[in-house]
Write a structure and sequence with these properties.
Elements lengths: L1 H8 L45 H10 L4 H11 L3 H5 L3 H4 L5 E4 L2 E5 L6 E3 L5 H7 L12
Antiparallel strand pairs: 1-2, 2-3
């Protein structure tokens, strides 16, 4: 502060304290960035690779729904939705049935606070083994 005293001595000014609520035009540099409120997205997903599903993959997924108990329940419910058919759903499905929908025979799921629909992949070992592309383990630091 001592080097600045001679500089400030040339000016006639008075320093007054202003509470934060009154100082609405504060300088951005006066705020510590580590105190800033951070907004986080609960559904943020890092994209490693994107691809367009082939029609044969979509057909395989639709065919595999018949062997997946949860997917079969959901497809039966959406074929004839009613309060009675909703009660027949398993409890864990019934709690989230509002997040599902059917489009062109595919089950789609929308996560919390998200408008992106995700294809529900059936629990079918052969389908997962043969049709899901394998991504290499890519680290950020390699030697």
């Amino acid at each position: 502060m001592a080097p600045w005293l001679s500089f400030f001595a040339e000016y006639n000014f008075q320093v007054e304290y202003k509470p934060g609520r009154l100082n609405v035009v504060d300088d951005a540099l006066s705020r510590r960035p580590d105190y800033a409120a951070h907004k986080t997205d609960a559904n943020a997903i890092g994209v490693v690779r994107t691809s367009t599903p082939s029609s044969s993959l979509l057909d395989d997924v639709k065919f595999a729904y018949a062997n997946d108990a949860d997917a079969k329940q959901l497809l039966d419910y959406f074929a004839t939705p009613s309060g009675k058919s909703r009660q027949k759903l398993a409890k864990h499905i019934r709690a989230r049935v509002h997040r599902y929908r059917v489009h062109n025979g595919l089950l789609l799921y929308s996560a919390v606070d998200d408008n992106a629909d995700r294809v529900v992949f059936p629990d079918d070992y052969e389908l997962k083994l043969n049709r899901i592309p394998r991504c290499p383990d890519v680290g950020t630091s390699r030697s």
